Amino acid sequence: MKGLVLDAKWDPKPDYKPSDWEKETGKAVTGSSIWRHPKLEVRDWPDPKAGPNDVLVAVKACGVCGSDMHFYVTDREGYILYPGLTKFPTILGHEFSGQVVEVGKEVKNLKVGDMVTVEEMQWCGRCTPCRNGFPNHCENLEELGFTIPGAFANYIAVDSKFCWKIDAIAERFGDQARAFEVGALTEPTTVSYNAMFPRAGGFKPGHFVSVFGAGSIGLAAIGLSRAAGAGKIAVFEVSPQRRELAKKVGADYVYDPREVKASEVMMELSHGEGFDFHIEAAGAPHLTVPEMEKALAVNAKVVQIGRAAQRVPMYLETFQVRGSQFFGAQGHSGNGTFPNVIRLVASGRLDLSPIITARYNLADTVDAIARSTTRTDGKIMVKPN
Ligand SMILES: [Zn+2]
Ligand SMILES: [Zn+2]
Questions:
Q1: What is the mean pLDDT of the chain?
Q2: Distance from the Cα of residue 239 to its chain's centroid
Q3: Residues 19, 32, 37, 67: which is the catalytic one?
Q4: At 367, which helix (H) or strand (E)?
Q5: What is the tens place of the pLDDT at every residue in 186-213?
Q6: How far, in Å, is the centroid of ligand 1 from the Cα of 217?
Q7: 319 Cα to the center of ligand 1, angstroms
Q8: Catalytic: 67?
């Protein structure tokens, strides 16, 4: 079969000493400090085989993620920008849906023909964090499209325990091709959902919500805030195209953060009370968190979803005086997150389909990722089958 393969050179930066674990496993904990000169190419890759607990999935739609872009763009020394767990060469792509074409002999919950979406976080279920209910912090984590082959490919074999049926989405949309595209939006949406609800405990209906950054994670957060009954949703995003998409999925107010002072806008919109729930989805917390901090309602929450390998100036006294909280979040597994997002989409209360702004064939996936660097699209979809 064909797949979008990323190859890169293991060449730790002079100031980064890989741990024994990194050397043993060949996995980089901080990818941006180790992987150099990435090469992206759609090429032949061995056909995946389904083991006894696996299903073989024909990939129907796979979204381009911000992290894919951070494998394509490098710093001046040629290192990838993605700061997370990685092992190369592998096939990229982790936001996908597809159809089951083969099932392993131990698989009970799926059959050939089922439409599914799949968790990107491949948790073990056996380590202490997993057993304590924290699969996103699994000690033996593998990540589809980061450490093991992903879904910018014709086929992928995955353990059936990571698969969720999207037939309810197909019923809502009627059209299978559309349902696969919308189903492929589940993964980024679950990342926002996990951060906002399981991690931060959500907000009350009527609360004022700010979203910084309207890439696909921010756009999903806007849709979810609307579905959860936010009183006002204010969005700060530099791209005019993305500001338009933000309005389509539920933003009440959109601003270019270079043209306004976000904290002043929020204080005005809330008549001096501040915003209750702040979502960082821009990956620029050194710029966004200081603005949130100046617009904290009493008992406000700040939720960090965007990734950024840098320190952030925070004046903790403000968090004390405003009785406010800061939440870190990663991943999307556990807590009923996948089925709940699928239910919301199937009910029609969450419709993120307007954010799909471009479509590519598998052979043109490198172009799709190159296009994503312009940061003007909502979600770019690759359609391998
Ligand atoms: Zn992603
Ligand atoms: Zn585990």
A1: 97
A2: 19
A3: 67
A4: helix 365-372
A5: 999 999 999 999 999 999 999 999 999 9
A6: 8
A7: 30
A8: yes
- Cα 218 to ligand 2 centre (Å): 28
DSSP string, 85-124: -B-SSEE---EEEEEEEEE-TT--S--TT-EEEE-SEE--
The predicted model gives 238-249 an average pLDDT of: 97
C-alpha–C-alpha distance, residues 233 and 366, integer Å: 35
Encoded tokens for 326: 């800061």
Tens-place pLDDT, residues 143-171? 999 999 999 999 999 999 999 999 999 99
How far does residue 334's CA lie from ligand 2's centre (Å)?
Answer: 12
Residue labelled with tokens 């056996």 = 126
Q: Which residues surround ligand 2, an ion (CB under 5 A)?
A: 123-124, 127, 130, 138, 140
Protein residues with C-beta less than 5 angstroms from the ion ligand 1 = 65
Give the pair of three-digit tokens for residue 149: 């082959």
pTM beyond 0.70, yes or no: yes
204 three-class SS: coil
Ligand 2 center to 353 CA (angstroms): 33
For 48-79, what is each residue's pLDDT tens digit? 999 999 999 999 999 999 899 999 999 999 99
- Name the catalytic one among 32, 33, 37, 70: 70
For 183, the 3-state DSSP assignment is: helix
The pLDDT, as a whole number, for residue 375 is: 85
At residue 140, the 3 state secondary structure works out as coil
Whole-number pLDDT of residue 307: 86
Which parts of 195-331 fold into alpha helices (H)? 216-227, 240-248, 262-269, 285-293, 316-321
Q: Does 332 participate in catalysis according to the annotation? A: no
Return the pLDDT at 309.
Answer: 77
Ligand 1 center to 145 CA (angstroms): 9
User: What local confidence, expressed as pLDDT, does residue 347 receive?
Assistant: 97
Cα separation, 14 vs 32, in Å, equals 13
